[in-house]
Amino acid sequence: MATVLVTGGLGYIGSHTVVSLLEAGHKVIVVDNLVNTNAAVLDGITAITGKKPQFYPLDLRQPETASMLFSKHPDIHAVIHFAAFKAVGESVEKPLDYYQNNLNTLVYLLQEVVKKPIAFIFSSSCTVYGQALELPILETAPVLKAMSPYGNTKQIGEEILQDCCLAYPHLKVTALRYFNPIGAHESALIGELPIGVPQNLVPFITQTGVGKRAQLSVFGNDYPTPDGTCIRDYIHVVDLAEAHMAAMNRLLNLTSKASFEVFNVGTGKGSSVLEVIKAYEKVSGRSLPFVFAPPRQGDVTAAYANTHKASTVLGWQARFSLEEAMASAWAWENKLLS
Ligand code: NAD
Ligand code: WQD
To answer: What pLDDT, on the 0 to 100 scale, is given for residue 256?
Structure first.
């Protein structure tokens, strides 16, 4: 069993991954400055697993945070680095905050990680592909100029990691390029906690479903897709958590010859906005009020993963359907009401 440092471990994807790690018997240390979550998530994790990870409410923008964690825990085998800001629109308004948080935290962690053979997993994003020319998207697709400072932090993050793998031959890194994570743990004890008006489709739908929002605006209905709305690859967050376990096991078992590897983490299936609405209507038994609105600036027409590499190399593939993921998102939204 491994000792795993999870940064941003009380966030949306981090908390689900912490649950998977604890359930698999690993020792978990969480660091999270609570900038985009709250400490009650720790109670949810404990209620699900019966175990409480060691928690540090600290900011990784302070360089001493990483050095303190590694000196207190010399037995760390793996780091899963989720901590970052993630709002695409906000990153355009406040690029320096995004470069500072998403890149400095990475550099400070790496300054400690490179001292020892520690496995490192980085949260990257399908956003690095922009509008790929070929679908489904392979990991070998070119990384296009980022459409936002947020996207750029993921591209630069991957480059920093590749440079470090060249400079420190014992360093082993996996970058997971997530597609569109949705849903919540089946217990509805942890899930996504969007602050303010959700920018992402599924939380906007479920908040509309419970009456917190009047109606959904569907951004664009004239895209060159079968129903005119954009296509994405929506992956259940619990599947995504499991992908981290598979990636970590590969790194710890030293199965990979390459020191830096990249994997798409998606279902391989594209769904349009109208199909997502239908899935919501089916699992909730309610109809969703929506209107068509102009396209949102920066949106790509279609993005879904080629998952061959993850399934053959990591032995991981998504288990949950869009409807199952949507049902869990709906249960979580209703739980938030209580
Ligand atoms: P999230 O905001 O829910 O989780 C990030 C966590 O990191 C939060 O709990 C936040 O409080 C913490 N954090 C941020 N800055 C910190 C700092 N300086 N020090 C300590 N803690 C800090 O986001 P998420 O959806 O769970 O995303 C996790 C990672 O996955 C991020 O790197 C994000 O960019 C990436 N990602 C997310 C998506 C998505 O759609 N959710 C898609 C692709 C990639
Ligand atoms: C999905 C679809 C919208 C809201 C974002 C980030 C990306 C990655 C994942 C982190 C699109 C449409 C949405 C609404 C709508 N995150 N939509 N009405 O844009 O694919 O990706 O999250 O790395 O970087 O950009 O996800 O959920 O915002 O949108 O019609 O109110 O839903 O146009 O087609 P997106 P999303």
So the answer is: 84
Q: How far apart are CA 267 and CA 289, in angstroms?
A: 27
Distance CA 105, CA 69 (A): 13
CB-based contacts of 50: which residues, under 8 Å, 6+ apart?
Answer: none
CB of 14 closer than 6 angstroms to any ligand 1 atom: yes
pTM of the model: 0.98
Inside any domain, residue 152? yes
Domain CATH number, residue 142: 3.40.50.720
Mutate which of 15, 20, 32 for ligand 1? The one with the most ligand atoms within 8 Å of its CB, which is: 32
Locus of tokens 């999870």: 6
29 lies in which domain range? 3-183+235-266
Q: Which two tokens stand for residue 90?
A: 């906000």
Instruction: Evaluate whether residue 289 is within a structural domain.
Output: no
Q: Look up residue 232 and give its two tokens.
A: 């994405």
Average pLDDT over residues 160-175: 96
DSSP secondary structure, 119-183, as one string: EEEEEEEGGGG-S-SSSSBPTTSPPPPPSSHHHHHHHHHHHHHHHHHHH-TT-EEEEEEE-EEE-
pLDDT confidence of residue 320: 98
Write the Ramachandran bin of 119: left for phi over 0, alpha for psi from -120 to 50, otherwise beta: beta
* Ligand 1 neighbourhood includes 69 CB (under 6 angstroms): no
CB atoms within 10 A of CB 209: 22
pLDDT tens track for 193-231: 998 999 999 999 999 999 999 999 999 999 999 999 999
pLDDT digits (tens, 9 = 90+) for 84-132: 999 999 999 999 999 999 999 999 999 999 999 999 999 999 999 999 9
CA distance 225 to 199: 22
Instruction: Give the closest residue (by CA) to ligand 1 atom 35.
Output: 123
Do 161 and 175 touch, CB atoms closer than 8 A?
A: yes
**Do you know the residue count of the chain?**
338
Assess if residue 214 is contained within a domain.
no
Q: How far is CA 294 from CA 90, 96, 202, in A?
A: 20, 29, 19
The domain total for the chain is 1
Cβ–Cβ under 8 Å, residues 288 and 211: no
